[in-house]
Design a protein that fits this description.
Length: 304
Amino acid sequence: MTSPVLPLAIEQIDHAAWTVPDLDAAIAFYERLFGARQLYRLGPINSADLPRSAQGKDWTHAHLDVPDAKLELAFMVLPNGFHIELFSYAQPASDTQKALKSNHVGAHHLGFLVADLDQAVAQLEQHGCTVLDRIAFDSGPTAGAQFQYFTDPWGNIFELVQRSQPLNAPQGRECVNPASLYNSTNFGFSHAVVQDNSRTVHLAGQVAWNGEGQLVGAGDRIAQTRQALQNLKTVLKEAGASPREVVRLRTYLVGHTPEELGPICALINEFYEGAEPAANTLLGVANLALPDMLVEIEATARLP
């Protein structure tokens, strides 16, 4: 059985980088245009002066896929904390003195969110950028937003964006109610709710009711814990998650004894199916919704 290929675990965007013909001129230009500040500069880096790889390739060929190169680079930070990296190659000579057009494979652009697009465009023109016509849509997913592309003196493509509302604005919620569990809406709640914008799943407290709404394990806290955890798994699966995505549990016990904590905690550990357990608060309470309910467990999870 082969292991599933998992998506890359990206924490955040670290930086964007592109190549310019003149590093000094580019640094000065982006300082004026963006208010960028240089953090450090490296080079000249000459491949001929560095060790070759085990396969016999020169350093820049092995690491940057550019044979026999000589280059410099600068790392800069924008006022909002975003980092940019600039490369300038003294050799080999570039195939073109301008950046790729948008239709060329490998072309890319960097988009900046602005509050006032008209003001930003006026500033771009003062800095000598080439500003293209504005894009705006009256309907569809980008309705209310405006977009305007521009290029720097070397043809690198950028975009300004003005939005009427943030992309991650709350878009509602999705209720999760597995058919195999009892109908919780009869009691005024859903088994779980997914927040669309944050991909967070909030699971209602699960008790030891089976699909017919009958209690499993009357008078037995350990049996009720087992059933409650199984119900949580059912809801997680319906929402598209698993115990591995749980970030928080809260466990309520009625009248438990210290001797029962060991077996109950063991069941909670088993619930995670080998994954490291999430945060959990275990609370002793006087009673739950009905007298025969002795265990209730609620959870929060993040969709994968």
